[in-house]
Amino acid sequence: MAFLMECCTFLVNVLCIPLHLIQAMGLYEVYKRFFPICLYRCSIMYNKKMYDKKKDLFRSLSEFKKPGGQLTILEIGCGTGTNFPFYPPGCKVICTDPNRHFQRYLKTSMEENDQLSYERFLVASGEDMGSIESDSVDAVVCTLVLCSVNDIPQTLREIRRMLRPGGAFFFLEHVVADASTWAYFFQHVLQPFWYYFGDGCEVTRETWKHLEAAGFSDLRLRHIEAPLMFLIKPHIVGYAVK
Ligand SMILES: C[S@@+](CC[C@H](N)C(=O)[O-])C[C@H]1O[C@@H](n2cnc3c(N)ncnc32)[C@H](O)[C@@H]1O
């Protein structure tokens, strides 16, 4: 089976040669302008299907507010701002994303969710959030982002640095399927194409292993099957306390 998977992956890689060339010539950057439009539409569908899971997850955010203080949330890879409706009213949100073209959609989400106060939108990658002070935020949020970052361990180090002691990292991420399934087979075979479609997204990541190794004091992590297409069905959800 492993041999068949490698042959099929090779074939898909060959079919993706035009896409590899487009990227090598630097033209793939054009897609970054259009990706926010695709994501905007997909996010509406994702939020509908994952409404209960997100509601459950983000309910715990308020537990990390300091007594008498305002809850400060830093969202990494915020995209179109699809998580804003789930945040507790009155909290302060700092949003970041390396793709500046999300700004237009983000503005709309901010206007629709004026129960929150927005500190700023920072164009930055999760691996290098240098302009955010250490120990400064109560919660960090990533949803469908650790599948796209270039370096998960470095991103988790940055998250731990920015969280105040006792603060928590909230995550909801799709991950690789069980190795005995067809989903695992097709995740690997279709990965070369999916990478371009998903703006650098990888469906074959064992993200939970990085979270387990990241040195958080308490990790609440569950594996769930999301009501989504097989490629992005296996998810992990939970939070990790600094
Ligand atoms: C699938 S979208 C998810 C967006 C949003 N979090 C959501 O749940 O709808 C992936 C996001 O990760 C961002 N991203 C890609 N590479 C990143 C990196 N190295 N650091 C932070 N965010 C990144 C993308 O720009 C995009 O906004």
Give a description of the structure:
The chain has a single domain (2-62, 71-83, 90-173, 188-241), classed as Rossmann fold (3-Layer(aba) Sandwich). It is 40% helix and 21% strand. The protein is built from 8 helices and 7 strands. The chain has helices at residues 2-15, 17-24, 29-49, 51-59, 103-112, 152-162, 182-197, 207-213; strands at 72-76, 92-96, 117-122, 137-143, 163-174, 218-225, 234-241. It has a 7-stranded mixed beta sheet, sandwiched between helices. A hairpin with an 8-residue loop joins strand 6 and strand 7 (234-241). Helix 1 (2-15) packs parallel to helix 7 (182-197). The termini are far apart. S-adenosylmethionine binds at residues 39, 43, 76-79, 82, 97-99, 125-127, 143-145, 148-150, 200. Residues 1-24 form the signal peptide. This is Methyltransferase type 11 domain-containing protein. Residues 74-171 form the Methyltransferase type domain.
CATH structural architecture? 3-Layer(aba) Sandwich
Choose one word for the global shape.
globular
Helix content: 25-40%
Can you tell me the CATH class?
Alpha Beta
Q: What order do the helices and strands follow?
A: HHHHEEHEEHEHHEE
**Largest sheet properties:** 7 strands, mixed
Number of domains: 1
- Say which CATH homologous superfamily is assigned: Vaccinia Virus protein VP39
Mean pLDDT figure: 95
How widely separated are the two ends? 41 Å
Strand share of the residues? 15-25%
Low confidence ranges = none
Q: Could you give the count of β-strands? A: 7
Signal peptide: 1-24
Pfam family, one: Methyltransf_11
InterPro entries: Methyltransf_11 (IPR013216), SAM-dependent_MTases_sf (IPR029063), Thiol_S-MT (IPR052356)
GO molecular function: S-adenosylmethionine-dependent methyltransferase activity
